[in-house]
Amino acid sequence: MKSLETLDWICVGIYFLVLFGVAIWVILQKNNTTEDYFLAGRNIGWFVVGASIFASNIGSEHVVGLAGAGASDKIPMLIYEIHAWIVLFLGWVFLPFYARSGVFTMPEFLEKRFSAKSRWFLSIVSLIAYILTKISVTIYAGGVVVASLLGINFWVGALSTVILTGLYTVLGGMRAVVYTETLQTVVLVLGAAALTYIGLNEVGGWEGMKITLGPEYFNMWRPSTDPDFPWPSLVITSTIVGIWYWCTDQYIVQRALTAKNLKEGRRGTIWGALLKLLPVFLFLVPGIVALTLKTRGELHWDSPDQAFPVLMSNLLPSGLRGLVAAGLLAALMSSLASVFNSCSTLFTVDIYKKVRPNTNEEKLVKIGRIATFIVVILGILWIPIMQNISGVLYEYLQKVQAYIAPPITAVFLLGIFYKRINAQGAFYTLIIGSIIGGLRITFELMSERFTPGTLVHTIATMNFLTFGAWFFLFCVALAIGVSFATTAQSKEALAGLTFGTLSKKDKSENENSYNWKDIVLSIIVLVIVAWVMLFFNGK
Q1: 3-state secondary structure of 496
Q2: pLDDT tens sequence across 8-58
Q3: CA dist 249 → 44, 302, 499 (Å)
Q4: 253/99 Cα distance (integer angstroms)
Q5: What are 259's strand-pairing partners?
Q6: pLDDT by residue (tens digit) across 504-515?
Q7: What is the CATH number of domain 6-384+503-535?
Q8: 3-state secondary structure (DSSP) of residue 460
Q9: In the chain, where are the structural domains located?
């Protein structure tokens, strides 16, 4: 790793000056109501909505990890990066229901569609999951990246980014988050695009990489018998996880809810889907470039996760290196800001306001700020624990999504598409699904203690993608079974919350919220996704 030079530090310094200039400008705006603080007054345009969705998704651990996938034999994981079509699913299918119901949070939508019990359960589970996974992993990975890029102590890097990000998130709320994320998206895309372009020139383009690594390296489609990435399970489980993450998770959906109307929100998701196609080219390809150079003996790194920073350090000229370093810092800060604000929203709207419904708007905003501050402290306290987690367990955290997603995806999908699913079906699916997901995690950790051939050992050692697919099917069957065994909800209670209960007015408003341009752009996204799937076929 080459250290940053004077010109690089100037670039990093300019980035921070502009970032905090934007943050201060936003903080000076009024944040007197919960709608202002948590949803930016529901007055954000499509460009900022889409950029915020993209920036929330791309964290420093995401950048480094995706390049690491490209630098190791994990090309099938690319399928998680072509979920742009699922981002479209958010805008075209889910968002009209969320916007029509006027909710702040996803648990709040579950209460309107099902019951308060489902809301409480999802609120608490989401908060715990955010603090133990998203916040801790992002802070830990970010600390490592900052330390290696800037040549400073891990703790100094981690604490500095957490405190700075927490400061403007606490003071500026959601408006500060979405506007700073727009700036961070621009910086990140420009920096990574420069690295991709220079890297491809260095290795002789795509054909140069194929000659060095062999065409079979670029195949994302493994046989159904493959022990790691069987393609049927990969497609099914990645879709289940994708719908959970992009269409039902507060972390992402909150960005779409900030839009001034449904039209802007949907266009924001289309713009976010177009941006979501970029990581394949901006982060995965540099990892393959790094592996190509290592295979040729022109570059050295010990772990695949070092591929991106080492490539950046060795290939980019002074100045550009600083721009990419700023991009990685932007990725870290945008992810942290997003999860801080989402946790604050969940606690204030779904827990505090439910317990004290008569609290005035000004006090709720103060509670939101305090909640953000507490989440920042909890994230910092969790860093020492993350430092002791091995690389194996860090990768294992990515698998956890396959155990969290199936019950939540099943409840939301069925809840919107099938009016017969009722409150009991949803609640028992969430509860039993969470228990099964927890058991799978426990069994997997204890798999060596079980006798091979037994049912418990089979469940513990089953490929996580295959388990995820069967688990989702079980959750769907459970939700339908319990719903049919209990009384159906009234049509009046479901008005406008499912496809089967939409009024003529609802349908008319939805049709008026898009035009041919939205349809054409959405088709372009689908065509590019199909092209990427066909391109990475190992030929």
Answers
A1: coil
A2: 888 888 888 887 788 788 777 766 666 666 665 677 889 989 988 887 787
A3: 20, 35, 21
A4: 11
A5: 44
A6: 999 998 899 999
A7: 1.20.1730.10
A8: helix
A9: 6-384+503-535, 402-502
